[in-house]
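User: Let's play a game. I give you a shape written as tokens, and you guess the letters that built it. Ready? Here's round one.
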């Protein structure tokens, strides 16, 4: 039997590691190139990795 592939540890569960996407705005410049904007995953802020709870909350004394 084949094993199911699991995502590598630390991958953002919301975007599955594909943290940024280029989106066309529909317009073109004078050279004919598409205008694009970049959208980042709101959960990982474009890093593609998840943060651990201790990293998010900071060190407690």
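Assistant: Ready! My guess for every position:
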């Amino acid at each position: 039997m084949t094993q199911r592939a699991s995502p590598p540890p630390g991958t953002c569960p919301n975007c599955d590691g594909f943290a940024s996407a280029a989106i066309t705005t529909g317009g073109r410049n004078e050279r004919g190139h598409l205008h694009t904007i970049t959208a980042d995953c709101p959960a990982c802020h474009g890093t593609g990795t998840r943060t651990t709870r201790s990293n998010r909350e900071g060190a407690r004394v």
